[in-house]
């Protein structure tokens, strides 16, 4: 009840008491009594009216109070909701404050990492300067090697000329020796004849003593001739021995020259190989050399759909590479049905893979995941396939960082470009490409996952796993094997992809 209504009621009761009170006990006249009665009746009527008014006021006050009670309950409920909302907002604000603290900490860590990267960048610039100085020295060595090579070529030509002269001398000596041997043979025949004649003369001397004196002069002449012929034979024998000795010396000298020429040729080949290794090839030259080596890898699979089973094929290009004595096809799994995924994987019902060249093809019995990176697949290539196709497998370089840039080739559209690259300072299996500095671009080209990375010497370096990071195939380590064809099962494919997906989840965020 309001304060104003209480005051009215108190006033009314006070007036009622005052009206009913008799302050004088003296008798009064009848007229006065009637007047008082009328006054009392009027007062009673007024009181009745006032009570009715007060009842109405009380009813109104009760209704207003009930309305206020309802409003108070609504306000209490609204206040409770506001309190809960305020607590929720407070929790959100606390979470935001924690996130802000974490962001502040992350920002400080990033600043530290940025300072570290700037420091390493300065170190790399210094190393680049040293590399440039080494390149200048190498160029000087190349010039010196070229001059030595020219000098060696001149010496080789001179030795070949001397060898030709010695061969001519050897030929003429051989002819002389043959002539001397022929003359010696004729002299031997003559000597035999003379010996026969002497024997005949002796016999005739015994038979005919009477003609001894006549034939004595002829006998003396014959004896003299015999002595002369014997001396000639001895002299020719000495000449033959001398010729044999000279011929042996000439042969030894020729062998020495041949050994020297062989060593010179070996040194020349080594110098030529060193010059080839030191001379970087152009991107167009590298592309023309590897273009005939591309083969097609065809994935044929069957999947269940709304309208039943559907057959599909995926065809990608690959390059045969000889790593650790074996020939492999190393490709990206991005566009295949066995690529690692962070979502639910649905394995195909059947899966077959065939490798097709220009004239021959083969079907591998299995495919491997690569331990160096879970996003790569490897297929082993038989030796007879590359022999039949007359393909020379690419090799991996001994030094992956002999050159400051590399050549990236897109196997789908045959676009390629020359791009600077650097080693990843956190993981030696990867390299970072400066894609903003693409040079010698052919076609609308930008590196992407699945491209091949080649050294400026033409060797195979690895595969792109995104637009700026490459895997360097220093070695090829097979991991899990998935059987194909009749031995393929969806459960095996599910396990194969699950393994590569788990490995991908564990990789650093910057390499995903």
Structure at a glance:
The chain is of the alpha+beta class and 512 residues long. The protein has six helices and 17 strands.
Structural description of this entry:
With 512 residues, this protein is α+β, with helices and mostly antiparallel strands. The chain has two domains: 133-279, Helix Hairpins, CATH 1.10.287.1490; 284-511, Thrombin, subunit H (Beta Barrel). It has helices spanning 3-20, 30-207, 212-278, 283-290, 383-389, 490-505, and strands spanning 295-305, 308-318, 320-323, 326-332, 350-356, 361-362, 366-370, 373-380, 394-395, 405-409, 416-423, 430-433, 439-442, 452-454, 460-464, 469-472, 478-483. A hairpin with a 4-residue loop joins strand 15 (460-464) and strand 16. Helix 1 runs antiparallel to helix 2 and helix 2 packs antiparallel against helix 3. The longest helix has 178 residues, at 30-207. It is rod-shaped and about 250 Å long. The two termini are 75 Å apart.
């Amino acid at each position: 009840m309001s304060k104003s209504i209480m005051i009215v009621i108190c006033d009314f009761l006070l007036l009622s008491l005052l009206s009913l009170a008799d302050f004088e006990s003296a008798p009064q006249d009848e007229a006065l009594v009637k007047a008082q009665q009328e006054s009392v009746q009027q007062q009673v009527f007024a009181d009745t009216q006032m009570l009715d008014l007060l009842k109405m006021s009380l009813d109104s006050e009760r209704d207003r109070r009930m309305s206020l009670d309802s409003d108070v309950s609504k306000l209490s409920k609204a206040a409770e909701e506001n309190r809960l909302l305020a607590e929720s907002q407070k929790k959100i604000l606390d979470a935001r404050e924690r996130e802000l603290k974490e962001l502040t900490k992350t920002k400080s860590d990033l600043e530290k990492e940025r300072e570290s990267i700037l420091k390493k960048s300065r170190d790399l610039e210094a190393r680049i300067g040293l590399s440039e100085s080494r390149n200048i020295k190498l160029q000087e060595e190349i010039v010196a090697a070229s001059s030595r090579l020219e000098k060696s070529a001149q010496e080789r030509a001179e030795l070949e000329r001397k060898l030709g002269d010695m061969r001519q001398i050897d030929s003429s000596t051989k002819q002389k020796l043959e002539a001397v041997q022929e003359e010696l043979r004729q002299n031997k025949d003559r000597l035999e004849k003379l010996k026969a004649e002497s024997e005949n003369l002796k016999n005739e001397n015994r038979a005919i003593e009477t003609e001894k004196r006549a034939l004595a002069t002829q006998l003396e002449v014959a004896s003299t001739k015999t002595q002369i012929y014997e001396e000639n034979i001895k002299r020719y024998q000495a000449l033959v021995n001398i010729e044999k000795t000279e011929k042996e010396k000439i042969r030894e000298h020729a062998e020495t020259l041949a050994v020297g020429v062989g060593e010179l040729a070996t040194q020349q080949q080594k110098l030529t190989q060193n010059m080839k290794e030191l001379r970087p090839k152009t991107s167009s030259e590298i592309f023309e050399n590897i273009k005939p080596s591309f083969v097609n890898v065809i994935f044929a699979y069957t999947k269940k759909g709304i309208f039943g089973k559907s057959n599909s094929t995926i065809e990608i290009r690959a390059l045969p590479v000889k790593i650790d004595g074996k020939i492999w096809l190393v490709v990206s799994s991005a566009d295949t049905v066995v690529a690692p995924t962070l979502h639910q994987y649905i394995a195909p019902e059947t899966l077959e893979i065939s490798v097709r060249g220009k004239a021959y093809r083969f079907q591998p019995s299995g495919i491997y995941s690569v331990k160096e990176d879970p996003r790569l697949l490897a297929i082993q290539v038989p030796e007879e396939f590359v022999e039949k196709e007359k393909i020379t497998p690419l090799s991996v370089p001994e030094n992956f960082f002999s050159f400051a840039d590399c050549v990236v080739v897109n196997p789908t559209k045959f676009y390629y470009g020359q791009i600077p690259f650097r080693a990843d300072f956190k993981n030696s299996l990867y390299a970072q490409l400066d894609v903003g500095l693409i040079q010698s671009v052919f076609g609308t080209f930008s590196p992407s996952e699945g491209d091949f990375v080649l050294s400026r010497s033409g060797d195979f370096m690895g595969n792109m796993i995104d637009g700026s990071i490459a895997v360097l195939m220093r070695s090829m380590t097979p991991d899990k094997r998935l059987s194909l064809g009749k031995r393929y099962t969806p459960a095996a494919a599910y396990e194969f992809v699950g393994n590569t997906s788990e490995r991908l989840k564990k990789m650093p965020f910057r390499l995903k």
